[in-house]
TrEMBL record, chain A:
Membrane spanning residue stretches: 12-36, 73-95, 147-165, 177-200, 232-251, 257-275, 287-315
PANTHER family referenced in this protein's UniProt entry, alphabetically: NADH DEHYDROGENASE SUBUNIT 1, NADH-UBIQUINONE OXIDOREDUCTASE CHAIN 1
Membrane-related topology note: Multi-pass membrane protein
Keyword Transmembrane tagged: yes
Subcellular location: Cell membrane; Membrane
Keywords from the named record: Membrane, NAD, Transmembrane, Transmembrane helix
Top-level taxon in the UniProt lineage: Bacteria
Family annotation (InterPro entries): NADH_UbQ_OxRdtase_su1/FPO
Family to which this protein belongs: Belongs to the complex I subunit 1 family.
GO biological process, one term: aerobic respiration
Designated name of the protein: NADH dehydrogenase
Automatic annotation (TrEMBL), chain B:
Annotated Gene Ontology cellular component terms: plasma membrane
Keywords: Cell membrane, Membrane, NAD, Quinone, Transmembrane, Transmembrane helix, Ubiquinone
Catalytic activities: a quinone + NADH + 5 H(+)(in) = a quinol + NAD(+) + 4 H(+)(out)
Enzyme class: translocase
Molecular functions (GO terms): NADH dehydrogenase (ubiquinone) activity; quinone binding
Superkingdom of origin: Bacteria
Protein name: NADH-quinone oxidoreductase subunit J
Enzyme Commission code: 7.1.1.-
Statement: the UniProt record of this protein carries the keyword Cell membrane: yes
């Protein structure tokens, strides 16, 4: 998996510490997202930041509820996969100049983790053999048909500009100009797509209150923690990846690169949460039409513009 | 190092075959779908240990989306959205088992009988770049033709499957300014 160019953190510090760092970073990011979210929900009361920790501990200790004749194997598989995939997607986010794994197709890695999440959430909906849960699972799939393609084009736009699918190369290619300057649409689509994969904010219809919580309705105990944690981590991973792909990674004056990366990621997380909580939930069937008629062509035009700029030598 | 690759590759191969068999053994549509996905993911793993990251990840990506879309089709065509009724993936059990075993035997024999060429030159540092150059250079025409063919297939599939065409939406003379749809879309048109 490892390549000649760009040393990975696994090579630099050994596999176990590097994996540990990614898991710790994932849990920190997840807690950050959940903390900011509960502060925003509580109307800015800072004490609410500790609520996610409390409910996480309660989830671990809680006894599981179950349903009549669930498909336990697939249900558990789906819940665990939601968490594992969120952590895996962080493995290719460049932190401090290196990633945990560096393949020559990092962007595809990130996208593959998202696609697998698609299947995992459907499993979470299907597993308990309950109607609201299943409706939520199918809503997630249907909504995915709308944002998956624009998200892919947004990801690939950065790859075209950097002329590499390796995330460390994408960061390095932004030495002169952050990609957000020439691909603002891809940036917005990427953030929206990430929020949609975490079925969060305006994309929360799969877990909507009109279907009694949808995919989340039958989850309890550790399973609930895994899925909710996976969503929060995934939203955080989206912010971190957007920092790397569009906001120049750790680039910035005075402060060291690591600090800039953290500052940008935390800002993006706050922005995502505050904006996301203020938007109404979109109906998946309406969103799919908007997506195919407006977003897909717009993302294609964005990729075309980037390709022309790349040929003109703007990114060198 | 080569031993490790061989052991991991063969184990993943066995996993792929076992999950492939599971597709025809389990009695639920969802389990069959995800057994098939697991089988494909094992094959993606084999490509990953063979140092072909792009092909491996694209296989994982595309197969996952394919299986997810299959789940959507489950409600569209099978009238069995929850897959709760026991079902079987096997029809004409004896004939299909014979055909399957026959094809497996032919392919497995081929592995041993074919005089495989030895590698000339060395592996490239970045197989992804090489793959991209091959697709976008030498085989560009083929890829364009395949793309147009696939697009035509998707269009004709949709046209055949749709229950409401443009005459239903815009009237027999296509004069309606707004289509009459049972469920309005997201755009004001």
């Amino acid at each position: 998996m490892t390549e000649a160019a760009g040393a990975t953190s696994a090579e630099a510090w050994g596999l176990v510490p590097a994996v540990g760092l990614v898991v710790v970073a994932a849990i920190t990011l997840g807690l950050l997202v959940a903390a900011v979210d509960s502060v925003v929900l509580a109307g800015g009361r800072p004490g609410a930041a500790l609520d996610p920790v409390r409910s996480a501990v309660r989830s671990v200790l809680e006894q599981r509820r179950t349903t009549l004749a669930p498909d336990r194997l697939l249900w558990r598989l789906g819940s665990s996969a939601a968490f594992v995939l969120a952590v895996l997607s962080l493995a290719v986010v460049p932190f401090d100049g290196s990633t945990l794994v560096s393949t020559s197709a990092d962007l595809v890695w990130f996208n593959a983790a998202e696609a697998l999440l698609w299947a995992a959430v459907w499993l979470v909906g299907w597993g308990p053999n309950a109607v609201h849960s299943l409706v939520g699972g199918y809503r997630f799939l249907a909504q995915g048909l709308g944002y998956e393609l624009p998200l892919m084009f947004a990801l690939i736009s950065t790859g075209i500009a950097a002329q590499s699918l390796r995330t460390t190369d994408v960061v390095a290619a932004q030495a002169g100009l952050w990609f957000v300057a020439t691909m603002p649409l891809a940036f917005v689509v990427f953030l929206a797509g990430g929020a949609a994969f975490a079925f969060w904010g305006p994309f929360a219809a799969p877990a909507g209150s009109d279907v009694a919580g949808g995919v989340l309705s039958e989850l309890s105990g550790p399973d609930r923690l895994l899925v909710d944690g996976g969503r929060a981590i995934f939203l955080g991973a989206t912010a971190a990846m957007a920092t790397a792909l569009f906001l120049g990674g750790g680039a910035g004056p005075l402060l060291p690169a690591t600090w800039w990366f953290v500052v940008k990621t935390v800002t993006l997380v706050t922005l995502l949460v505050v904006v996301g909580r203020r938007l109404p939930v979109l109906r998946p069937d309406r969103f799919v039409e908007v997506s195919w008629v407006v977003l897909v062509p717009a993302a294609l035009v964005q990729a075309l513009v980037v390709a022309v700029l790349a040929l003109a030598g703007v990114y060198r | 190092m080569n031993d490790v690759v061989a052991v991991v590759g063969v184990s993943l191969g066995i996993v792929a075959v076992v999950l492939g068999v599971a597709v025809f053994v389990v009695d639920s549509m969802a389990r069959a779908t995800f057994a098939l996905l697991g089988s494909f993911l094992a094959i993606a793993g084999i490509m990953l240990v063979l140092d072909l990251p792009y092909l491996a990840l694209v296989t994982a990506l595309m197969m996952t989306m394919e299986m997810a879309v299959m789940a959507v089709f489950m409600i569209m065509f099978m009238m069995n959205p929850a897959g709760l009724m026991p079902m079987t993936m096997v029809h004409n059990a004896r004939g299909s088992a014979g055909a399957g075993l026959g094809v497996f035997a032919v392919l497995a024999a081929g592995v041993w009988l074919v005089d495989w060429p030895t590698r000339s030159g060395t592996a490239p540092a970045d197989a992804t770049v090489q793959l991209g150059e091959a697709i976008m250079g030498q085989y560009m025409l083929v890829m364009i033709l395949v793309g147009v063919g696939l697009f035509a297939t998707i269009l004709s599939g949709t046209v055949l499957a749709t229950g409401r065409g443009r005459y239903d939406r815009f009237g027999p003379d296509l004069r309606r300014s707004r289509p009459t749809d049972p469920v309005p879309g997201g755009l004001p048109r």
